[in-house]
Amino acid sequence: MAIEAIGFDLDGTLVDSAQGLGNTVDGMCERLGLPQPGKALVTTWIGNGIEMLLTRALAWAGAPSDDEYRARAMAILSDCYQDELLSGSPLFPEVKVTLEALKAQGYDLVLITNKPSKFVPELMHYLGIDHLFTEMLGANDVAKIKPHPAPIFKILGQLGLTQREFVFVGDSRNDILAAKNAGVRSIALTYGYNYGESIAHASPDAVVDDFAAILPVIETWKND
Fold first, then answer.
1. Is the dihedral of CA 94, 12, 191, 187 positive or negative?
2. CATH homologous superfamily for 17-84?
3. What is the dihedral of CA 129, 148, 49, 176, to 10 degrees?
4. Which active-site residues does the annotation give?
5. Which parts are annotated binding residues?
6. What is the pLDDT of residues 101-121, one digit of tens each?
7. Which single residue of 7, 10, 21, 220 could bond 110 by disulfide (Cβ 3.0 to 4.6 Å)?
8. Binding site residues for Mg(2+), as ranges?
């Protein structure tokens, strides 16, 4: 059965958001009078959505755990992230040209990210790739985020696809687990953010070192 659509994660897959997210967390901590973890550590916290990013940052900094403090911290984190959103999330090499090639071959391209939905359209438009995507799902568009299969199941339903007609591309174990939980094939990228672990340990169906290497994998699978 032919592949009809390809889904992509965002942070660590399409965009290198580590610097922007590092600056975001450091900015929040500075405003709260907390120690700043820095980009290298924040990179190991990326992938489970903004709520978990906040949880990890506050726990690391030894911050108060009450709801009022957390709400204040979240408001500051969101403000800091808005400031860093565009300048701190450049495309990885070969992403745009590869997406254009896949689109030209007739595939529907879909974005499935754990990033808050309100940030997604502006960033994708700024990057000049929003027009390539048939659907874009953020964290607020689904009841459960990755690694839960809900986002992938939602896309399969919207596009009327079987599991064999969809492939998901990501850089972390959450992406690969979401694909496995949904029963679709996965391609893992080695250059992203996977908590300091080799993405091969998540047992994806294929592993590639650069974004353009997705093309020959899809070519091999397209009628499988």
1. negative
2. Putative phosphatase; domain 2 (1.10.150.240)
3. -60
4. 9
5. 9, 11, 171
6. 999 999 999 999 999 999 999
7. 7
8. 9, 11, 171
